[in-house]
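The methods section describes the discrete structure representation at length, but only in general terms. What matters is that the chain and its backbone geometry are given together, residue for residue. Nothing conveys this as quickly as seeing an actual entry. For illustration, here is how one protein appears when written out as sequence plus structure tokens:
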Amino acid sequence: MVNSLVNEFSRSKRLKVVGEKDADLIISGAVLNVSTNSISYGGDDRAYEYRVRVKIEVEARDVRQDVVIWQNNSMSEVEEYHTSGVPNDVQIQKRMAIQKVCKVLAENVHDRLFTDF
């Protein structure tokens, strides 16, 4: 999630990404939950399609004034992914789906930071 946030803010150039000691604004948060559910099965009773949901909380704090200027205690995104049913493929596809979810969440954090307050 951290890499996705850094990439999103670096890409947009609306804010400069710097180390914590040089920051005017600090974005922090936590991953609250990552859940995976099987959503379809083949004739062999193997799961071939899954849904992953990532839920986070995040806040932006103005360092100079020591105040939270924006927060969201419950952001989540979902991604569905297909697999061959082979355990190694399931893990690879799950990891890729989580990366996609993190990218979307980072985009949402960025966009909402500039529009919600």
